[in-house]
């Protein structure tokens, strides 16, 4: 039993062969070269235990087998043995492998995908470095560990190398001690080594700059610091054509500036700098990144003011994503990040749109800083905006009516500010809105169907903690199916709102302190999906529906305290394990 059969016993135990095509050979009429077919069959027959994943590997013509692709002279040029995540978790015994050469018989192989299988911490076999025709090698999400073999430096035809680790931050990781072999990969245009640790290697920039065609570079979570990407000028003639760079989560930059070595990379379209704990201002030379489309800056401690940041991007006309929240906006909650001492952006929005800033913007996320002042009227000019997250700041004044012009807007989150005035009726024209969250402000006035009658895609309605009075007719039939309703501490002042009866997909219902009176209607038992229900601090009377526990099997939090409910706790609630259950007066 040789090295190859063991690899593939491991592999095929988990095999899901997909037909992702790299070469254009599906209509090939030629049949398999005999020697190559035999090599594949030898491999198949040497498999221990199983071969069901390769059940189509029979018959003379290997070019017809699943995952095997030939060119029109019958040579195998592509082996696509990509697995899937569910196979990833199946346990397989790790094996130490010895050299074997059946794969080397496939001399014309240009494409090899072994990604998404669990190799159980095995080292990457050296012989891959002898497969000189390879243009595509994908070993990502495959739980390899140990040193990446320098033998891969022989693959001078390689255009795509994907070693993306599945699970970084663990002991059994891939690492590189000497990066010099990478400079031999002169055809490379796509390099993803995220999770691979670069330790004490020094000349990373020089090596990367020697790759003339590199456009995509993923160095996410590689343990990098200023010795790898220095804060001084470097020769970056070739790196100047890089289009994609991911440097996120490299904690070695903590407390320092964005390295100047990036300054000449003016072709960048995508730049990820999330989670590096940089402590500095955003450098002016970011203004030279005129091709930027997506910029991710969250989880750093930049001390720029908002107006200076925006003016830097006055000539970045294609920017679609500007993301720098200090808090995560996830699952409809604001989740504080690790470091509460983080510096925050201060300042205000500039009075006028600088240059072409924002004309292509689709996502603007400034969640959780100290930005104050008014929301400018020009926000309504950012006509491609889909996601606007301004929650957790110090904005004051009223919501500009111009927001009603943002016809592409899907999510509007302006919670936790000091906004006053009324909710402009024109927000009801945002026909694509999924999320409307204006909670925890000082908004006033009435909130009626006028806002909601056209919002047929709405999933989240959060208006809690404002001086608002809901005036929704009892026979109103909403156009939407909501998942999240938060109307805490606003005035409803009626019996349990009838229109809720139409909402069959509710996950969270918060109507606490909303002046609701009367009994809980039996139709609430149809809301089977609810996980969080808060009806506390109202004037609810009568007994609870007897089946409330059994009808709402997903419920994890139920708050009914400070009402006028009488009778006993229904037995259907007795054997339920809630994270929070409040019934009695607090
Ligand atoms: C393969 O042949 C089919 C039918 O003749 C044709 O529609 C298709 O475009 C061909 N595919 C390629 C990749 O040449
Ligand atoms: C599968 O392989 C293992 C390990 O080589 C062996 O112990 C076991 O008997 C084999 N099972 C079958 C059904 O062949
Ligand atoms: C993943 O692989 C497993 C086992 O081979 C298979 O049962 C499952 O259907 C596959 N899942 C997908 C989404 O392809
Ligand atoms: C490599 O494989 C992974 C997982 O199968 C896939 O997500 C990724 O896109 C592939 N990489 C390239 C460059 O095709
Ligand atoms: C990856 O391999 C290591 C070493 O054998 C093993 O401990 C770990 O469980 C594997 N990871 C997964 C997700 O199976
Ligand atoms: C690189 O290729 C040469 C010549 O084909 C071969 O002798 C050598 O063993 C290969 N090196 C590695 C590291 O695979
Ligand atoms: C890389 O190229 C250099 C010079 O061209 C050569 O000496 C060296 O052996 C190559 N390294 C590998 C790993 O192929
Ligand atoms: C800069 O790097 C390129 C590519 O590696 C190289 O050709 C050039 O000679 C270098 N220039 C200087 C001044 O070192
Ligand atoms: C940018 O490139 C110029 C000329 O190509 C070079 O002189 C300068 O040092 C580079 N700057 C940085 C920060 O690498
Ligand atoms: C931002 O922080 C850097 C580094 O701590 C400091 O040099 C700079 O003066 C600060 N800028 C502002 C505007 O506070
Ligand atoms: C709203 O707040 C602004 C600034 O805080 C204040 O000047 C204005 O009078 C307030 N308007 C209302 C209607 O309360
Ligand atoms: C709430 O709004 C009403 C008018 O809608 C106003 O009379 C009242 O003073 C406001 N209360 C607070 C606390 O601002």
Automatic annotation (TrEMBL):
One Pfam match: LRR_8
Residues covered by the Disease resistance R13L4/SHOC-2-like LRR domain: 361-511
Concerning SMART domains, the annotation shows:
LRR_TYP (SM00369)
Compartment(s): Cell membrane
**Record SUPFAM superfamilies:** L domain-like (SSF52058)
Principal place of residence: membrane
- Which first-to-last residue range defines the signal peptide? 1-25
Q: Which InterPro entries match?
A: Leu-rich_rpt, Leu-rich_rpt_typical-subtyp, LRR_dom_sf, LRR_N_plant-typ, LRR_R13L4/SHOC2-like, RLP23-like
Keywords in alphabetical order? Cell membrane, Glycoprotein, Kinase, Leucine-rich repeat, Membrane, Receptor, Repeat, Signal, Transferase, Transmembrane, Transmembrane helix
Q: Where is the Leucine-rich repeat-containing N-terminal plant-type domain?
A: 34-71
Q: How does it sit in the bilayer?
A: Single-pass type I membrane protein
Record-level Gene Ontology MF annotations? kinase activity
Cite a GO CC annotation: plasma membrane
Q: Which family does it belong to?
A: Belongs to the RLP family.
Tell me the protein's name: Leucine-rich repeat receptor protein kinase
Natural source organism: Quillaja saponaria (Soap bark tree)
């Amino acid at each position: 039993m040789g090295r190859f059969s063991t690899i593939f016993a491991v592999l095929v135990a988990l095999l899901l062969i997909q037909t992702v095509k790299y070469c254009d050979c599906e209509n090939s009429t030629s049949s398999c070269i005999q020697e190559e077919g035999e090599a594949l069959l030898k491999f198949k027959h040497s498999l221990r235990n199983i071969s069901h994943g390769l059940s189509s590997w029979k018959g003379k013509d290997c070019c017809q087998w699943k995952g095997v692709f030939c060119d029109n002279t019958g040579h195998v040029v592509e082996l696509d043995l990509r697995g899937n995540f569910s196979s990833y978790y199946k346990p397989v015994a790790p094996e130490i492998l010895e050299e074997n050469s059946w794969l080397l018989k496939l001399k014309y192989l240009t494409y090899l995908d072994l990604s998404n299988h669990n190799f159980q911490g095995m080292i990457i076999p050296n012989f891959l470095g002898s497969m000189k025709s390879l243009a595509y090698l994908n070993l990502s999400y495959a739980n390899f560990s140990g040193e990446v073999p320098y033998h891969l430096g022989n693959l001078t035809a390689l255009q795509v190398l994907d070693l993306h680790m599945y699970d970084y931050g663990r002991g059994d990781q891939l690492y590189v001690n000497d990066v010099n072999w990478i400079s031999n990969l002169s055809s490379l245009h796509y390099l993803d080594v995220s999770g691979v640790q670069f330790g004490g290697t020094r000349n990373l920039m020089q090596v990367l700059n020697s790759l003339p065609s590199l456009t995509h570079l993923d160095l996410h979570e590689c343990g990098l610091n200023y010795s790898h990407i220095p804060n001084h000028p470097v020769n970056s003639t070739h790196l100047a054509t890089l289009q994609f760079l991911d440097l996120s989560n490299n904690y070695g930059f903590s407390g320092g500036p964005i390295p100047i070595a990036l300054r000449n990379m003016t072709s960048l379209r995508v730049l990820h700098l999330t989670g590096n704990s940089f402590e500095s201002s955003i450098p002016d030379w970011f203004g030279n990144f005129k091709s930027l489309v997506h910029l991710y800056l969250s989880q750093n401690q930049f001390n720029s003011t908002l107006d200076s940041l925006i003016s830097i991007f006055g000539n970045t006309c294609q920017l679609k994503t500007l993301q720098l929240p200090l808090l995560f906006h996830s699952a409809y909650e604001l989740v504080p990040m690790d470091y509460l001492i983080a510096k925050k952006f201060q300042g205000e929005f500039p009075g006028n749109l600088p240059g072409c800033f924002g004309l292509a913007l689709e996502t603007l996320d400034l969640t959780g800083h100290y930005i104050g002042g008014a929301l400018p009227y020009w926000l309504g000019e950012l006509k491609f905006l889909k996601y606007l997250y301004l929650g957790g700041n110090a904005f004051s004044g009223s919501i500009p009516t111009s927001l009603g012009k943002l016809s592409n807007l899907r999510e509007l989150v302006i919670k936790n500010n000091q906004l006053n005035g009324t909710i402009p009726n024109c927000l009801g024209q945002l026909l694509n809105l999924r999320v409307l969250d204006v909670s925890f402000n000082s908004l006033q006035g009435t909130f009626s169907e006028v806002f909601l009658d056209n919002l047929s895609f709405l999933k989240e309605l959060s208006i809690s903690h404002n001086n608002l009075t809901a005036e929704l007719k009892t026979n109103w039939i909403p156009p939407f199916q909501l998942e999240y309703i938060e109307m805490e501490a606003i005035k409803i002042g009626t019996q349990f709102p009838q229109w809720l009866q139409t909402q069959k997909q509710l996950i969270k219902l918060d109507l606490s302190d909303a002046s609701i009176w009367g009994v809980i209607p039996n139709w609430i038992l149809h809301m089977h999906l609810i996980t969080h229900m808060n009806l506390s601090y109202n004037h609810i009377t009568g007994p609870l529906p007897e089946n409330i526990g059994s009808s709402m099997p997903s419920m994890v939090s139920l708050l009914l305290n400070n009402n006028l409910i009488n009778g006993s706790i229904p037995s259907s609630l007795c054997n339920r394990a809630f994270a929070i259950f409040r019934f009695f007066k607090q």
